Inverse folding.
């Protein structure tokens, strides 16, 4: 099944000019797709490669749906790792407001699930870690609750989007365990998935994620042998 799914995703890259060039059908597993903002590009912005136009996002999901691939949240992969249906995990980093206003209607139209990794201390703010002014709007606490209420999984992307390996023990705990506590208070439910900011992690970071009680954590590139290392699950980016 994994090989057939890889072929379908590769076909999508040709037919829709979507380059799923991160996928290599060398290992069995479930692809985990990485998105950030769903919204318009900015003239001259170096961050446009992290932005997906809503119409392109819709085409990508339509292609998956036409071929019987179901989009799911990361927690769904954890809860049923051996499900028989063809699946792709859909994730969004940073928690942009556009995920609620633009991506959610498209996800709902296809009956797809997703996981949104939120920066807990930047709710209602902007992505100030990227150095672009003005920044893109991030979800408010109400927006996070609205996504949760719509069935979207809320995960943590740290408290302030700092790379974990360079932090002191206290700051590492605040980014990992502290962000989990904040988000659980916002949605009133467990937060079980983590995303390493910048994809940066080491043994100490993994230990902190494990100690905080997360069930899974994602990095950036590669493919996964199904849950072979659930605290460093690799992902791929669909490029336009």
């Amino acid at each position: 099944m994994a090989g057939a799914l890889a072929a379908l995703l590769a076909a999508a890259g040709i037919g829709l000019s979507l380059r799923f060039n991160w996928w290599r059908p060398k290992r069995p597993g479930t692809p985990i797709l990485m998105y950030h903002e769903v919204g318009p590009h900015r003239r001259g912005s170096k961050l446009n490669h992290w932005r997906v136009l809503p119409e392109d996002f819709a085409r990508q999901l339509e292609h998956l749906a036409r071929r019987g691939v179901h989009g799911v949240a990361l927690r769904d992969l954890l809860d049923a790792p051996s499900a028989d249906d063809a699946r792709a995990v859909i994730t969004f980093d940073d928690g942009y407001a556009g995920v609620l206003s633009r991506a959610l209607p498209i996800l709902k139209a296809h009956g797809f699930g997703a996981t949104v990794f939120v920066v807990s201390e930047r709710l209602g703010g902007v992505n100030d870690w990227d150095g672009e002014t003005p920044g893109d709007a991030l979800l408010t606490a109400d927006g996070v609750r609205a996504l949760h209420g719509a069935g979207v999984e809320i995960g943590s992307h740290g408290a302030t989007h700092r790379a974990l390996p360079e932090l002191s023990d206290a700051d590492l705990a605040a980014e990992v365990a502290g962000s989990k506590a904040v988000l659980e208070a916002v949605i009133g439910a467990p937060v079980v998935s983590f995303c390493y900011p910048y994809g940066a992690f080491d043994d100490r970071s993994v230990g902190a994620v494990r100690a905080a009680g997360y069930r899974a954590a994602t990095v950036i590139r590669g493919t996964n042998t199904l849950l072979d290392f659930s605290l460093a699950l690799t992902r791929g980016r669909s490029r336009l």
User: Anything to note?
Assistant: Residues 169-187 form the longest helix (19 residues). The first strand starts at residue 32 and ends at 35.
